[in-house]
Amino acid sequence: MDLDAYVRALPKAELHVHIEGTLEPELMFALARRNGVALPYASVEETRAAYDFSDLQSFLDLYYAGAAALVDEQDFFDLAAAYFERAHADGVVHAELFFDPQTHTERGVAFETVLDGLERACRDARARFGISSRLILCFLRHLSEAEGFATLEQAMPHLARIHGVGLDSSERGHPPAKFERLFARCRELGLHAVAHAGEEGPPAYIVEALDVLQVERIDHGVRCEEDAALVERLAREQVPLTVCPLSNVKLCVFERLEQHNFRRLMEAGLKLTINSDDPAYFGGYVAKNYVDTARALELTRAELARIARNSLEASFVSDAERAPWL
Ligand code: ADE
Ligand code: ZN
Asked: Where do the catalytic residues lie (predicted)?
């Protein structure tokens, strides 16, 4: 069996994918036309050609511009339905989707419009492919604590449909501690908590996410390597890291995949998973992230199977739900 087929056949969970980051330019243009929304580029080809990023912010500027094409409940359904089709082809049996409600409510799209469309696609994926899923509401860290609390207020009537909260957007200058009270309230409400940390930001942000926000997983976390004590702690506590190798190269965290620290972190005993982050922008869905990383870092099939197993173990499903996959 070739490597690609081997990877696709591994049952896996995707734990770090921004649903807005799965918006392929073709669908972006179709939705923009349907909704009469102007996009910054004239064509699908011009849009793809612009996906040449120098850092996280240069990507986020385009990502937020593209998200403007999403207006109606059906748009959010179409977006997530397209993701689930690709995820199914990649052997994803469970997906925990990040969504950024503030990106949409700021433009006048109702919180319920976003949630209803995504949730309908989750139900549809369960029925069509047997994929289970969860929704994780991400707060945009470049916005204020007060804006985060206002978003939580909008989410309150729907908490049964939201499984956890996350923290994303521009990392530098927006430390996790800025959201200490918001995350404390979310945890009190019984929500799971995760946060992006140590993608572009320093290792201290990972420590803060763990100690101040009390998150259960770290999204990215690759800069932990600059702090030996932190690496040792992450290994000892088996804190899952949701690593996104192709994203890290596209956003210049590492110059080339061959230089990624995934293998070193794995050998240090960390509980690592492989994910796609924003696959429409970064050149590959989850299986391509596994395959390209395996080729670049000479990961064995046994190591890839361990990584897929880590993703199932690190997911927020119950042990009973998880059992048939392990
Ligand atoms: N939002 C979407 N993708 C992101 C990433 N890689 N880092 C921070 N925020 C994001
Ligand atoms: Zn991310």
From this structure: 199 (proton donor)
